[in-house]
Amino acid sequence: MKQWLAVAVATLSAGEALAQGRGDPMFRRFPFEQWRTEGNVTQIKWQFHVPAALLSPHQRLVQRFEALVDAPEVEKRRDHGQLVFLLEIEDSTGRKFRTRELADLSRIPADLKAKGASWAQDAFMLPGTYKVSMAVADAKTREHNFVRREVKVSGPRADPLPQASKELPAVEFVRMYGQPDSWFQPLMRGVVALPVESKRPVHIDIVMNMTLSERAQGSLRAFRRNMSLLVPSLRVLAGMKPEQGSMDVTVLDLAHKKKWEQAGARGLNWEKMREAFATVTPGIIDVQSLAGKAAMQQFFWDSVLDRVKPEERKGDEPLRVVIVLSSPVFLERQYKVEPASFPKDPNRRVYYMQYRPVPPRPMMVRPDEGPMPAAVALPSDDLEHTLKLLDAKVFPIISPEQFRKALAAILADIGRM
User: Fold this and answer.
1) What is the pLDDT of residues 79-132, one digit of tens each?
2) Is there a single domain that holds both residue 168 and residue 185?
């Protein structure tokens, strides 16, 4: 099996600003247009892969482009400064989208045997056929590879939300942020179209729980894996647009009994809500939090109950919809939730989108690594037990495709209210 090293990559801020257009000076410094006229060239031994596009947690198709430069090529160029990766995507209208990165070969220690250099770029793309041009160049010798390929991006089969992409741009590059911004992608312009139709005025509360199961409280890796699914999904849900009504968003930290709220949401206000994900310390529970640890389930119940209590003026009461978004949560030694029951209400709907993380696909796909492990069924978690008191409809989810189907079912159900 070949070994590969993701060489340290420095992306200039100017490249970020120009990545969506044709004005990037790096494409002039290296004669990209001339290389295009010369056709496919291979002066550096490499591999270029374009795996099939996948539906991402952002509910957008994500297409990956991978370049793999062989180890001997890296070894003999380690003192040449940089390898330059240039990528251009052209849509059916002729519009071009460009991005690039620089791999700093000088960061390879002198006593380290060089491995193959890998680079990957993800892009959110609409279904369609694109012309893709990719170049890798030695910044010193100008030796280069150039390949031009037609790439077909296929959408979900029998899409339950066929209108969701009508306002999206053809191509948007996924940015390489640190966390938590990598989960949200704050510069992403595209918005998934989710109009909410209802026969009566409706108020929607989106409640996301960020707390891990008690036994995973010390795992930062588990927290990050959860957030890589839940934050994009929260962004999608916050983009819903009730045709007659309003929507609020709440993020809960059960362990510390904290909440972050955004009233009248029309999309997620990341500047306001980012604090919840940037300051949380999963697994680090102070003495005060530890003393009230057994009441986490009660705190969750109280937070949801506040959102489904009927208004005093029955005639003016809107439909109350609560959508709870969380990974499965299993808590131990909890006080019994009170009250033990709650009266049924035809004006209330509660949905639990239980999004279970599965191992992510690797940065680079290798044909010899075998299939991903299959997910196994889980028993009902403690949030589901609590929400059953409100006759909640539960949607177990292990993939973006299942999330999309669940969201379509929820929107259809609201439309019948």
Assistant:
1) 888 999 999 999 999 999 999 999 888 777 766 666 778 899 999 999 999 999
2) no
* CA-only gyration radius of the chain, Å: 24
Which of 173, 205, 235 is the C-terminal boundary of a domain? 173
| Cα–Cα distance measured from residue 147 to residue 68, given in angstroms and rounded to the nearest whole number | 13
d(CA 31, CA 393): 58
What would the pLDDT profile of 179-237 be if each residue is shown by its tens digit? 999 999 999 999 999 999 998 999 999 999 999 887 776 678 888 899 999 999 999 99
Torsion of the alpha carbons at 210, 211, 213 and 215, rounded to the nearest 10: 130
- CA gap 165, 150 in Å, rounded: 22
Of 204, 203, 192, 198, give the one whose Cα is nearest residue 243. Answer: 198
Q: Helices (DSSP H) in 47-100: which residue ranges?
A: 71-76
Would you put residue 410 in left (φ > 0), alpha (ψ -120 to 50) or beta? Answer: alpha
366, containing H or E segment: none
> Which residue is it, tokens 């310390």?
281
DSSP string, 135-157: EEEETTT--EEEEEEEEEE---T
Residue with tokens 């010390």: 218
3-state SS, residue 245: strand
- Give the range of the structural domain holding residue 275, as residue numbers without chain letter: 181-415
pLDDT-derived band at 287 (thresholds 50, 70, 90) equals: low
- 321 burial (CB, 10 Å; 0-12 / 13-18 / 19+) is buried
∠ Cα 58 64 68 (to 5°): 150
Domains held by the chain: number: 2
The domain boundary residue, chosen from 148, 173, 198: 173
Task: Write the CATH number for 200.
Answer: 3.40.50
Characterize the bridge pairing of strands 319-326 and 202-209.
parallel
* Residue with tokens 């390929």, as numbered in its chain: 149
Closest CA to 268 of 256, 258, 277: 277
Q: Do 147 and 40 have their domain in common?
A: yes
